[in-house]
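Dear Dr. V.,

Thank you for agreeing to look over these. As mentioned in my earlier message, I'm a first-year student in the group and I'm still getting used to reading structure tokens, so any feedback on how I've presented them would be very welcome. I ran two proteins. I've put each sequence directly above its structure. The first is here:
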Amino acid sequence: MGEFLQQFLSCLGGITCLIFLAKCVRLLKYFSPLVWSTVPESFFRSMGEWAVITGSGDGIGKAYSFELARRGLNIVLISRTLTKMQKVASEIEQSTGRKVKIIQADFTRRNVYNDIEESLQGLEIGILVNNVGMIPSPFPARFLNGPENDEDLINCNIFSVTKMTRMILKQMVSRQKGLILNLSSAAGTFVCPLYAVYSASKAFVYSFSKALQAEYKGKGIIIQALTPCGVSTPMSNWAKTSLFIKSAEDFARQSLEYVTFGDETCGSLAHEFLVRFMKCIPAWILHSDRLQETVLVKFTENAKKNRKST
């Protein structure tokens, strides 16, 4: 019995070391774009002629639109605010010379998809970026104290990803190539109190994307869940950029270097380190009442200071 236990523990230790080594190797891959481009210059254009980006009037969606246009694709902008898209389209056309098509749609509504599909007819779509999303409130709150906009959030964060993917994946399968980037969030990779509905909606995007990649990777299609931490966008009230808070432009540019790295990525080296650190913190600490109360108090104090300064 003692010999068996010793062999079992040795085997378990070896497996643990191998898993740790595999994680270290995976993390080391994220350093490579700092030295050389990990994706051939022709890669994105080889997927197809057009890229479709939802929520492309500003923030991350706008950044992806510019970045993919620079890499040789024509762009379809889909968003709610027409004036913003018109400005983005003009800037892209003037700076890159690529074609831009505009589709106005409010993704909090479920009746927009027939019009979108009709507008996309005849386009060879090689890339889809499911970026559109919303957060109930930029401030943390317990579920019953937050705004009651659950239906809008589910339509925008979950239904839009499902419908747009179903719409465009069909032609990708027929051509045996394509790239779908689904914007989840680090908050969708673990339970996140005080942002319960938002976190759960991003967990759907995370799981949905990974499942689809398992289903369709054999057909030459890349489907990747992006799980960033902080990005300076209207959703984050244009948070000040830092080591761990990326500008939308930096995030889009860096994340495109990681599209061949597997079914999920944080999109930046700094975020990979931060997420791994967060996952090392025991759940009982993150879920404790004391921590939640501290977070709520801090955000309330900051909100009061901001109101006074304005």
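The second protein is here, in the same arrangement:
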Amino acid sequence: MSGAPHDGGRPAIVVAATPTSNGDLHVGHMAGPYLAGDVYSRYVAATGRPVIYTTVTDDSQTYVPTTAHRQGVAPERLVAESTTRVQRTLTAMGLSMEGLPPIDGRYRETVLEFFTALHAAGRLRRRTVRLPYAERSGTYLYDGLMQGSCPSCLTGSAGGVCESCGHPNNYDELVGPRATMDPDEPVSYRDVEILTLPAEEYRDRLTAYYAEREGHWRPRAMRLVRELLAGPLPDIPITVPGTWGIAVPFPETPGQVLYPWVEAMPAVIYGTWWSAARRGAATAAVDEHWRAEHGAELVYFHGFDNVYHWGLLDLVMLMAHGDRYITPESNVVNEFYDLHGEKFSTSRGHLIWVADLLAEVPRDLVRFYLSLTAPEFQRTDFGVAALRAVTGRRLVEPWNRLADALHDAQAGVRPGPVPVSAPARSRAATMAGRFRVCYELRSFSAAQAAETVLAHLGRLVAAADSGAVPPGDLLVEARTLLAHAAPILIDAAAEATAAGVDLGLTAEPPAEIVPFTLPRLPEIAVPDGDPAGAAGRTPVGV
């Protein structure tokens, strides 16, 4: 197969946005960063490059205690149960992660070392800021602890960042703040001294960084970056006067905890180390894989509502360490995935849990449909009825027709390799080139890769139906199709690999090929009287 990597054996670190441990992952989550990151990671591995795909649960987020309060459970119990559920979902979906790293003593040590180094280097600044304060509970409000209106777009927003426009609203910027746990509780403002990391001090490096990647980011995300750079850059909170999270050791801020959003950066550094250790590649220094001298390709996958955090806040924190660390090659940013025309909502029960969907629909078909309809450039919509109809008509039926045609074409063929014509090798190379455009980072699109699978599938079915294509020619193009569908159709790929089919993407199309069986895809029936199937009801799994 053609498609050798341009960067040789350059290692890759792929990071999916850290999931908050206040519940399981629904279909909207999976169709965003998690599946896309997996598809890219599998493609990178198929080109012969080492890759680590990781994420870490975000236990310190304020959405943990607010969700626990709403459910009437202890936050610690919610974290434990949610982590178990998220891990089961990641495994069930077949994501190529080593697992969720434990939030243990080594984790907390890594996180604190990241910030104590900045503190010792004089990178942090003491600032007196004005924070909303819930009078009855005596709680300072930030992030998920408060609700109000975004000062940039005026829509409803939690603290920290606006989900709609992506702009931050630090400290007292949220309009009309009220406490999430008790909206009727009186709220005042109090001055408090915290430690911050001034993003403005890194403006020149940030401007140069984004200019180099102007064509690498998706348009709406880059537009938000330009909007952020057009105004004063914020003082990023490093510590806050809270009770849920990691206590900080800094003498200037006794009794405070790390601001939850800054924790994710050292968290995924730890996650990379832990994942490598699970593969037998442990290093003494937890941050070894992120050191600039190793030159790894770093890629983030996250939603638009996290552009400020993963695209600017975390970048500033890496830059604050000087030249010690790599910076992201790109941020692959998705939009929201709707369910029947409305945003997925856990609080309203308007959702489908990934685990429930996988109980109804085979995994390869779920992965394919979510890739095909991924909200890459604009919001898209999910429905189980559409999943069944589209995958059945456009994927499963023609795929299995091709599998049958390949089987029939090999009838009477002597055992051993069969020849492949030069025109067929050229077509296979052309196919690989089109898929490469879909999978490589600058133009990555799982949706376009899925569409390309369908386009070539239809072409090969027509070629097989004509009866005019020699077996070797049909086989080499079918293998090219399967190899490039493999990052999405992982079970079909695993079946073929187990049968001895080479699905690597590092070789040129061969002059002869050993006949093989194309794995059939599972068919899904529509239950009588329920065109959407049981998993299509809303809510599901609530």
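From my reading of the second output: The longest helix spans residues 384-409. The two ends are 46 Å apart (CA to CA). Does that match how you would interpret it?

Kind regards,
E.
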